[in-house]
Amino acid sequence: MSETNPIDINSLHHIVLRETENDSLLEIDPNFYRSLSDFIGNLRKQEFDGIENKIKNTMIEMVTELTSLLIQIRLDKISKSTDLEISHLLDEEKFILDSQEDQKERTEMILSATVNGKSKFLESLAQNHKTKKIVIRFLNEVDEIIGVDLEKYGPFKTEDIATIPYENAQALIAKNIATKVHWED
């Protein structure tokens, strides 16, 4: 691997610079994003006062911007590449690409069903999506609701966690009454 040193702001800057100066996807340490996450986490944990705290916060902003830029550059290279070196993809980038592949497959499925007159399939797909359950956390109290699946949900108190149909959850999220729960280890 070409990048095995511990991550700091200088090494991150160097990696971003190398990636921008090269047309092909560069090989970097497979643990790069995890090491970078550790670096940022450790930086955030440090407690300073006054100017030192401002410097720390500015460093966090810089590292965040460089990280975002690096991800954008690498994903852009991946999407435009005709001879992609798969071994240079990091696991986190593969995770992103998997969702893009799912999106392409879903788009093709909808297009195919639409142009081939499979309206019952589309109706079934839409109903399944509406009633698919997702986990949300309530930001406000909510009385009992009737879900699109005609089941009763609630009442809910602030900070309650619930699994409800997607369409109902989206309506609550749009009104800032709830937020989607993203499970993290």
**In angstroms, what separates the terminal alpha carbons?**
27 Å
Strand content: 5-15%
The figure for the number of domains is 2
The main β sheet shows up as:
3 strands, antiparallel
- CA radius of gyration is 22 Å
* Number of alpha- plus pi-helical segments: 6
If you average the pLDDT, what whole number results? 91
Structural class: mainly alpha
Shape: flat
- Residue runs with pLDDT of under 50 for 5 or more positions: none
Q: How would you spell out the order of helices and strands?
A: HHHHHEEEEHE
How many beta strands in the DSSP annotation?
5
What strand order characterises the main sheet? 4-1-5
Helix content: 55-70%
What does this molecule look like?
By secondary structure, the protein is mainly alpha-helical. It has 2 domains: 9-91, no CATH class; 124-180, Ribosomal Protein L9, domain 1 (3-Layer(aba) Sandwich), CATH 3.40.5.50. The protein is built from 6 helices and 5 strands; from the N terminus they run αααααββββαβ. The two termini are 27 Å apart.
